[in-house]
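Researcher: Before we compare anything, I want clean individual predictions. No alignment, no superposition, just each chain on its own. First chain goes here; please echo the sequence and then give the structure tokens.
Model: Echoing the first chain and its structure:
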Amino acid sequence: MEMTQPPPSLDWREKGVVTPVKNQGMLGKVMAFAITESLESLHAIQTGKLIELSAREVSDCCPDVEFAAGYDCVINRTKGLCSAADYPAQPAGQCNARLCSAAATCQNTVHVLPNHESVDMVHAVSTTPVVVIVDASLTSFMTYTSGIYDDPDCSSTQQDHALVVVGYGSFQGKDYWICRNSWGTAWGESGYIRIARGKNMCGIAERVFYPA
């Protein structure tokens, strides 16, 4: 990665490269949403065209997608992702990638070294929104409504949920990550959570990756 100096704060939403917050609902496969949302933003940054891609396609065609696999299935099996509007969702659970044309793709998965939050992760987020795996099991996380989330009981080793980091900033001397969730706009700050930055809160810096 070219180590150019990242800006002191960044919010990719302000640059028009982030699609509206989704709700995983009955689909229930959070990694499918994280993979899709991060690829949407990368495509928008590269082309200037923001397209809502199909999380259903990832769910149908890449049912075992996980952190270690990254974007391998999207690159090698589906050959990119179709738009949400074009992907045929029926019959449910069947991979229908061949029935539509890919609207966006990537070439590689880039992994940030674990617990390199202060430099490498900031540089990564300044390049494109990234996927992180966090501990979302605490009641304080599930009922989060606003503010900078900072709970010392949040585990740095037992991650169970994926978020997309779309920026970072500071407020009253406290640094934070701006994270997109897939629990709908009624949760958190209209679907987002600000997580304390610089202390590996909820294990946010342990498993970080993004498309390239």
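Researcher: Okay. Second chain, same rules.
Model: Second chain and its structure:
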Amino acid sequence: MLISDARRALFVHVPKTGGVSVGVAFERCCPDARSKTPGVTPPLGRHAPYARILRAEPRTADYWSFGFVRNPWARMVSWWSMIDDWDREWGPSSGKPQGEAAVKMRGNDMWRAAAAYSGFEEFVLRGTEELPRVGRPQVDYLRTPDREVDFVGRTERFAEDLQEVERRLGAEPTRVPHRNKSPHGGYHDYYSPAARDKVAEVYAADLEAFGYTF
């Protein structure tokens, strides 16, 4: 989540949709950008849904709001790759000293649980049931019962949609690097029929809202 009161703009950060890069652009366009709401306990958090933001800051209902989404099958592969890469590089199986970064990740309930799965298949089949963030459709971050954000960008056309955001924020469009971009290739080969169908079931709302297909 990022808010600019000067520009009257709100970015809703859906996990694993290029939000780090979007944040760089937002902060360039909006020097007053903030990620915290004074007086709100506990803090809203980086990935606060639109509904929770509006409850905490009702005046932002009049702000221009936006977020980004991603093909659910590709998003799951990216999520698993990030967790798996960290575990192999820094987790207990790496054989490296378990320093501050490792301790921090072990303190994250989601990362700790996901790292215990045997592989991508289990991450999809069990993780979508056991880990609330993993099993939450993207559209749930961007809608309330009676409204939704004003603009939804797609990671599949990330550069073009991010430039549209910059224009809406009153800035000259730039080519902001896509930070934390997934290094893996296509996602299709990761899926068994069961895992493919599980994603379709769990993210049915995203498929309907955004027209994504396998």
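Researcher: What stands out in the second chain?
Model: The chain has a mean pLDDT of 88. Additionally, The longest strand covers residues 64-69.
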